[in-house]
Give the backbone structure.
Amino acid sequence: MSVHSELINILFEAGDSEGTVHNRVVAFTSALPEADVSYVVQSFARNLAAKTKKRVVIVDARAFHDLDPADSKNILRQCAETDIDNVLILSETGRGGAASTEGPGRIAGWHSSPQLRQAYLKSLRGNFDYVIIDCPALCATSDVKALAPNIHGVVVVVEPKRKRVRRRHTSQHVVESAGGKFLGYILI
């Protein structure tokens, strides 16, 4: 069994308290911006879709900043296809356009409205079997803190050259103090 298969079993196929094994939402982040979280997310999405034959969406956490509250009901229209079977992506710019600048109103709206975050996540769960959120580093934004209480858990990506025990413990503390479930570290 490959490392990916084992991690997929642990992160995505473990049943919750009600025995549900689909509609799981897991965020991936890092303590430092240098870790290649996007590579890990894409690799997991590819392997998860291949193994389960279910619909997977990769969400760039910054995409939530650009969505209008009305978009939560039509979130599927905001997703773009990828070259991977059963995998779609919700990018920061929606449908792969040019990057937008984050205005203070967008960031404040996203971070100040738990109902808005829940509406987006509910829509994603309703359209996809698995949701993988690609989050910027914990030290760069508060996206993980905003999402953590509303998702199944958070995984922190760590590079061996940069493994600083203090940062890793801080990462776990940040996730747990935000009300989230810390799922563990992935060493790349």
Confidence is low (pLDDT under 50) at residues 95-108. The chain is about 40% helix and 20% strand. The two ends are 18 Å apart (CA to CA). The first strand starts at residue 24 and ends at 30.
